[in-house]
Specification:
The complex is a heterodimer of chains A (about 300) and B (about 800).
Chain A (H helix, E strand, L loop, with lengths): L2 H23 L7 H6 L5 H11 L5 H14 L13 H35 L5 H15 L2 H15 L15 H35 L2 H8 L4 H39 L4 H10 L3 H29 L4
Chain B lengths: L10 H22 L32 H37 L1 H15 L3 H12 L3 H28 L2 H9 L3 H37 L11 H8 L7 H24 L7 H21 L12 E12 L2 E13 L4 E5 L6 H9 L6 E11 L20 E3 L5 H7 L4 E4 L13 H12 L5 H14 L5 H5 L8 H14 L4 E5 L7 H18 L2 E6 L2 H7 L2 E6 L2 E9 L4 E2 L5 H11 L15 E13 L8 E13 L3 E5 L6 H9 L6 E6 L5 E3 L13 H15 L6 H14 L16 H14 L4 E5 L7 H18 L2 E6 L2 H7 L2 E6 L2 E2 L1
Parallel strand pairs in B: 3-8, 3-9, 6-7, 7-8, 14-18, 14-19, 16-17, 17-18
Antiparallel strand pairs in B: 1-2, 1-4, 4-5, 9-10, 10-11, 12-13, 12-15, 19-20
Helix pairs in contact in B: 1-2, 1-9, 2-3, 2-5, 2-7, 2-8, 2-9, 3-5, 4-5, 5-7, 6-7, 7-8, 7-9, 8-9, 13-14, 13-16, 14-16, 16-17, 21-23, 22-23, 23-24
């Protein structure tokens, strides 16, 4: 079977499984939205009425498919907490913030970690290699929200470079947009940059031991020639997959960082909705984040296939 | 080869352990003894800065921060340990079963795993906690669930890798069941990976707990945890910064410690810098000494390359382990010089010294490598940087790297042993050859470059070179790749080509063609060639002279009449032995006359089909096609053929390791035992020799009523070690400490303990040196007589088969003749 067709089928299958998981996970909560909305004092009739309104009286399989349809059409019902505002309206407002935040941090991660990793691995066991190891260790050891707090303190409160919690959409002023998102994105990116640099270094060091590098040296290449002409492309291949995996971590990081910087994104909405037990919203956010992660990894697989002549 | 092992105390590891203990010890102490109650509120002591009585200060309720940090750390670590242990246990089980068995279960479980992996880990934990409600136990469950998929994935990969190794096949042949293979044989080999993943997991768990607590879903007040304290402390970051700082430090130190430990498991480095400096100094002194006696030797000829008293060593902790001792030889212009010797004799090391491509750990400690001035003809250099001596030679051991670099690939070319891995996998063939011209003839026009590349490819006998130019290495066979590498040597008209075992990785008929190519290009371009091989017959076909190396020295140089591939009479004992082993036709067969005609194995119309994976016309590939034959008891039956001909599949089917599609196999004996080609993979590396040999006895014990005691087992094992001419002391050693020959003897001892009449020998000596090969063959033949064994021998070496087999089958395309 064609590779792309195969990948597409597995993509759709994974999406479906994730939907199953996201839907049924929330069915195990004792009581349902109707109960939690009306409180324990409500009469049985009132509850039954609201349940019918939410569609909870239907068969669970029917409900799953109508929910799944809703994921794609954007009809996911109303938020329990925010009353008449629908789930999709809420998510529609917040999604761009998280997407921009994620994109900006992925950009920082790729642009910074690949050259840094290549340079640091050039001389395995050298000073640069060791020092960069220690720096990445420290950045990986500090929880991302602590780094966020420190960044807010230093750049927001002491240096006054940005106002925590202010978000301007790119249409309303690009400068303000970057100003508002740069530091949160940095907070998301730093631990991941440390991880990616480490991964890149390992990958480069592994490649440096392979026979073709010896061949390249025997051809008369300088160390730089070997690194840029031969090692870079080979060592990038696993890194591409790794960055695909990092996307999931970036989404997780943005949950924390949005809370620290008080940014009105999906992550903050998620945390608040969990606190409010607003499970309609939680369920939808979980599903959309999973869709983003799966789609990115699907694209990464395709890119990999296009770049690596062996596959 | 000499075992290079660095078992040095690793400083990084010590730092890691120190940091971990720095946090872990006070935490443990605080569990049994504390000055302050961590939850005791004292309104007279709010937010006190650090002092003697409260070394980390007090918090906003006047509680002692040190006690709370220690208590919080204990709770955080307990949660992390529990979740990682649970996640690892379940994950390992899932990974082991899916990786080992594969099939539908694997597909389904891995799909579920993929789904779980699509949720960012903290998100999954968040959702689970929000569903189960807050609380310490619920965090444990949530985080434990999060860890299962990653452990399952790691362990599955490990089991997939291990399950195809020969030692697993060996365990199956002994009769071990699947559960025993998984838990007793494979699991110990995956423990280092599991352990280091658990440490990484521990860090992630500490960070995840902190994250959950920060979001208010973790440990509930008033109990402290590191995460909760970090998020509480941030309110007071201006008024009472010690609160946040002390908590954060404890966490960072612990995570750093654990990370450093996890990275240093199984790794140890050596400090090269100071040793290299010392060597440089040593080197200078020796060069001065060498210069003063340069005129002593007679130089009537004018060789293109002259190696004088070369000494090369490996850098070890204790100093330098000298491996090449005072090697001297000349290479005449247009000559083909053979270098022959067993593995570890220093052939490749000498060659790489000439090219200046020694690995980091090897270094030239003395002598000189003189290269004729003519070789520098088209090389740009500054006359200040490069000095020639009176005879017109430059010493490669002292020339600057940037000039050396211009020689490599241009004037000095190297053809490597491993054609499969020596090419860059993601670059087109043409580009890789062209690169040499880019480096050494940068001003040559593009189309001229391409013409030269295609010409060089044609010179190596490649066809359709235009098409090959745009192909990638993986689309070429091993023989073709080796031609590409030779083309690289030709494209810039190298003066000296060093070919390091150029045919060892290739099939016999391909190897012959490649050797002819070397001869052709030598005639056509008049280049000098150094050809390194362990195989005297290769040297005999090509070389004008042969340099015999032994233990890093030149044993002797003998002339070769390459037309008849006959060597002049060797003068040294070692030379005689080597030549003898390589060319002996001494037969081990005895003329026993009428032996028994009793058959031990009968194959009837046996066929094995493989499913064709890739877009091929036929759906099935017939690996074994309708084979019928009988093997006679007490005889040695040989199966010869090139790699991929089906001989291994046939024998695996007889051993019961390969399912067959049609026909029958009738065994008139117990299950056969097997001696594998690679003694490095067929014996379990996690076991000692005694443990390996005890395994069949343990299995035998389970099935019988008479149990052998440990002492009885030991006696049997020692007996078998004696039979295979090994010392008794070897029993307590680890497999990694033994040489190839010793390992192969242990593999043979194992078949004897199993008490099988039929033994399959899969290339039993091809991984060994020639002199050791003879000893193993003698041992095999002695045991055959002593125990009345029947052998099946698989080999590609027709000479070997002719020497020991009573009956030989040629296997080709799945047919036996």
């Amino acid at each position: 079977m064609n590779y792309y067709v195969k990948k597409l089928i597995s993509f759709v299958l994974t999406l479906f499984c994730v939907a199953l998981l996201s839907f049924f996970l929330f069915q195990i909560i004792p009581g349902d939205a109707a109960v939690s909305k009306l409180g324990t004092d409500a009469t049985a009739e009132q509850i039954a009425e609201l349940r019918a309104e939410y569609g909870y009286d239907q068969n669970i399989v029917v409900r799953f498919f109508s929910w799944l349809g809703g994921v794609f059409t954007g009809d996911l019902g109303v938020s329990i907490k925010y009353g008449p505002i629908t789930v999709s309206e809420l998510i529609g407002q917040r999604l761009p913030v998280t997407l921009w935040l994620g994109l900006l941090s992925i950009l920082m991660i790729t642009v910074l970690s690949i050259p840094i990793g290549l340079i640091c691995a050039k001389k395995p066991g050298g000073i640069v290699d060791k020092v960069s190891d220690w720096i990445s260790l420290v950045f990986m050891a500090v929880p991302s929200f602590v780094q966020g707090i420190l960044i807010t303190l230093l750049f927001g409160i002491i240096l006054n470079l940005f106002v925590p919690g202010r978000y301007t959409s790119p249409g309303d002023g690009f400068r303000e947009f970057i100003q508002g998102l740069f530091f949160p994105a940095l907070a998301v990116a730093i631990p991941k940059i440390a991880m990616t640099v480490k991964f890149m270094k390992t990958s480069v060091k592994k490649e440096l031991k392979l026979d073709y590098v010896r061949t390249a040296k025997a051809k008369g290449n300088s160390q730089n020639g070997i690194m840029w002409k031969h090692v870079l492309k080979n060592s990038l291949l696993p890194v591409i997959t790794f960055i695909g995996l990092i996307v999931a971590e970036v989404m997780a990081g943005s949950i924390m960082v949005e809370k620290v910087f008080n940014l009105p994104g999906l992550g903050l909405l998620l945390v608040n909705s969990i606190a409010n037990r607003d499970f309609n919203v939680v369920q939808a956010i979980v599903m959309y984040i999973a869709i983003i992660v799966i789609t990115v990894n699907f694209l990464v697989d395709i890119i990999y296939k296009l770049i690596d002549p062996r596959t | 080869m000499q075992q290079l092992k660095y078992k040095k105390v690793n400083i990084s590891m010590l730092v890691g352990i120190f940091l971990t203990l720095l946090v872990a010890l006070p935490v443990l102490v605080s569990l049994v003894w504390q000055i302050y109650d961590p939850n005791e509120i004292n309104y007279s002591m709010l937010l006190q800065s650090p002092s003697f009585s409260h070394i980390f200060g007090t918090d906003d309720y006047g509680r002692d921060i040190y006690s709370r940090v220690m208590n919080g750390a204990a709770i955080t670590f307990a949660i992390s340990l529990f979740t990682v242990a649970a996640g690892a246990a379940i994950g390992t089980l899932v990974g082991a079963l899916t990786g080992y068995f594969g099939g539908v279960v694997d597909e389904v479980l891995m799909r579920v795993n993929d789904c779980l992996a699509s949720f960012p880990s903290i998100l999954l934990a968040l959702v689970v906690v929000s569903l189960l409600d807050k609380g310490t136990w619920n965090i444990c469950i949530a985080l434990g669930l999060v860890f299962i998929p990653s452990f399952a994935r790691i362990m599955r990969a490990e089991f997939l890798k291990e399950r195809n190794k020969d030692y697993v096949l060996n365990a199956r042949l002994m009769g071990a069941d699947h559960l025993r293979i998984i838990f007793v044989h494979i699991l110990p080999n995956t423990l280092p990976i599991l352990f280091s993943s658990m440490l990484v997991g521990l860090n992630n768990a500490v960070l995840a707990e902190a994250g959950l607590s920060y979001l208010g879903l973790g440990v509930q007040p008033p109990d402290p945890s590191l995460g909760r304290m970090l998020s509480e402390a941030k309110t007071f970051i201006f008024g009472a910064p010690w609160y946040e700082i002390s908590t954060c430090l404890v966490m960072i130190i612990f995570i750093l410690g654990i990370t450093i430990i996890s990275e240093n498991i199984g790794v140890s480095g050596i400090n090269l810098a100071h040793v290299k400096k010392r060597i440089a100094k040593l080197h200078e002194n020796e060069l001065e000494a060498a210069a003063s006696c340069a005129n002593a030797g007679e130089l009537c000829k004018h060789p293109v390359l002259s190696v004088k008293n070369l000494e090369v060593g490996f850098i070890e902790d204790s100093g330098i382990d000298e491996t090449i001792h005072s090697v001297s030889f000349d290479l005449e212009k247009g000559e083909i010089l053979g270098v022959v010797g067993e593995s570890g004799s220093g052939k490749s090391l000498t060659a790489m010294s000439i090219m200046g491509i020694l690995s980091e750990k090897a270094v030239i400690t003395g002598g000189s490598i003189l290269l004729d001035k003519e070789c520098f003809s088209s090389v740009k250099y500054d006359s200040d940087d490069l000095k020639f001596n009176e005879e017109g030679y430059a010493d490669l051991t002292v020339i600057p790297e940037n000039i050396y670099r211009r020689l490599r690939g241009g004037k000095l070319a190297y053809v490597f042993q491993e054609p499969m891995t020596s090419l860059n996998p993601v670059q087109k063939i043409g580009v890789q050859i062209d690169e040499i011209l880019d480096i050494h003839a940068a001003d040559m026009p593009e189309d001229e470059q391409k013409r030269l590349v295609l010409e060089a490819m044609k010179d190596t006998g490649l066809h359709e070179v235009e098409k090959l130019y745009d192909m990638y290495p993986h689309e070429l066979s091993g023989g073709m790749r080796q031609r590409v590498i030779i083309a690289m040597a030709l494209v810039a008209r190298a003066e000296i080509i060093i070919a390091d075992e150029p045919t060892t990785a290739l099939d016999a008929n391909v190897a012959d063609v490649i050797l002819d190519i070397f001869k052709k290009i030598n005639k056509k371009y008049g280049c000098s060639i150094i050809i390194i091989s362990h195989d005297l017959r290769v040297i005999g076909r090509l070389a004008n002279r042969a340099l015999i190396m032994q233990k890093g020295r030149i044993a002797e140089i003998i002339d070769v009449d390459e037309g008849k591939s006959s060597f002049a009479k060797p003068q040294t004992e070692y030379g005689k032995r080597l030549l003898n082993a390589a060319f002996t036709t001494k037969s081990f067969l005895e003329e026993s006359g009428e032996g028994s005609k009793e058959s031990i194995v009968e194959l009837d119309k046996l066929s094995v089909f493989y499913k064709n994976r890739k877009n091929s016309d036929e759906k099935l590939r017939k690996v074994i096609d309708n084979v019928s034959l009988k093997l006679i008891k007490g005889q040695t039956t040989g199966f010869v053929g090139e790699s991929g001909c089906g001989k291994t599949t046939l024998v695996k089917a007889i051993a019961g390791l390969q399912k067959y599609t049609e026909g029958t196999i009738k065994l008139n004996c117990k299950h056969p035992a097997m001696v594998f080609q690679d003694p490095y993979s067929s014996l379990n590396p996690a076991f000692t020799v005694e443990r390996i040999l005890r395994e069949p006895l343990i299995l035998q014990n389970r099935g019988s009523s008479e149990k052998l005691s440990k002492e009885q087992m030991h006696e049997i094992i020692v007996g078998m070690l004696k039979e295979t001419e090994l010392e008794e002391e070897i029993a307590s050693r680890s497999i990694n400490e033994l040489s190839g020959g010793q390992r192969q003897r242990i593999a043979i001892a194992l078949t004897l303990i199993l008490k099988r009449e039929l033994i399959i020998l899969d290339e039993p000596v091809s991984a060994l040196d020639v002199t050791i090969q003879e000893q193993i063959l003698e041992l095999l033949m002695k045991l055959k007589k002593e125990f009345g064994l029947t052998y099946i021998l698989i080999s590609h070496d027709e000479r070997l088969v002719a020497r020991i087999c009573d009956r030989v089958y040629n296997v080709k395309n799945g047919h036996c003749t």
